[in-house]
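Structural prep section.
Before we set up the soaks we want a predicted structure of the protein with magnesium ion in place, mainly to decide which crystallisation condition to try first. Input record follows.
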Amino acid sequence: MTVSSAPGKVYLFGEHAVVYGEPAVPCAIEVRARVGVKRRDDSKLRVHAEDLSLDGFTVEYGGGADERPDVNASESLLMAATQYVDSAIEQVREVTGEEDVGFDVTIESNIPLGAGLGSSAAVVVAAIDAGTRALGTTLEPVELAERAYRTEHEVQDGQASRADTFCSATGGAVRVEGDDCRSIDAPDLPLVIGFDGGAGETGELVSGVRTLREEYEFAADTVEAIGDIVRNGEDALADGDVAELGRLMNFNHGLLSALGVSSRSLETMVWAARDAGADGAKLTGAGGGGCIVALDPTEETETALSFTPGCEDAFRAELAEEGVRRIE
Ligand SMILES: Nc1ncnc2c1ncn2[C@@H]1O[C@H](COP(=O)(O)OP(=O)(O)O)[C@@H](O)[C@H]1O
Ligand SMILES: C[C@@](O)(CCOP(=O)(O)O)CC(=O)O
Ligand SMILES: [Mg+2]
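Run finished without errors. Recording the tokens verbatim:
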């Protein structure tokens, strides 16, 4: 068994707008997806996932072109659950040239699904890394990130940025603008996460913003304004100015909300954090439900969130310096 893990992330700034070429700054955090891969002696794929909303499941499929996985769940649930893993294994086959290789894949993850913490990117990065290593090829983090991006791009119908996958593969704080991806220095930020227990559908939310942007010039301007916030945020990060970072995060949240990707529970958590004295708070990732990220060096925000109806979990997140981790 070859095992790799990769971290999730929060967006300090720039989600959604990054899909249209604006810069974004995500930051890897110490919550991880761990993927174990073992080569099979046939061309099938057997996926065992512990932490899915399907309540944990095992599927075995492959061999025939249209062979459907043998599992008692609706097609759409199953698609949602397996498409990132499937597509990651396709990348492994392509990189290694072993088109017919089959695998037993085991996924364990502490990253809530569809909650804006980048579970898809972490699973894909860890799966491609473990899969290629199982066949004797070790990819550099940048190549790994590129392969993982192609997976997200494919699954999200051509609508994905390189931000999540680059951040998960390399760790730390990163800046992504189009295909220019780089690591940047970040101070030790007092990150607090609030999770509403729900999820948003990344593909649908991205499509919604795309439509608005095509329909209204002011929506296109809003996307550009997010880019301006990110550029200001980079300066604040370089200066270690947490108060300014917070103000800019608040502004970024307002614009995401205007683009229709917030939700009642995300708003409730954002305001609970602000009322508790956080320097700033915003949704992270695609939105629609899931997580917010706040900046607060004191205990106040975490405590307030833990008593906020609609907030299921509140915790402090540490920056993950290390991206992909090769465990076995
Ligand atoms: N533990 C897991 N096991 C298998 N697949 C997972 C796991 N975590 C995430 N995924 C895949 O990632 C998808 C969620 O990704 P996405 O909607 O982009 O949300 P996010 O990246 O914000 O968590 C899931 O539907 C599933 O396909
Ligand atoms: C909305 C988007 O900018 C981020 C999505 O993040 P997540 O999958 O919700 O963690 C899409 C993307 O960059 O591919
Ligand atoms: Mg994702």
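Observations: Residues 2-185 form a domain with the Ribosomal Protein S5; domain 2 fold (CATH 3.30.230.10).
Flagged for discussion at group meeting.
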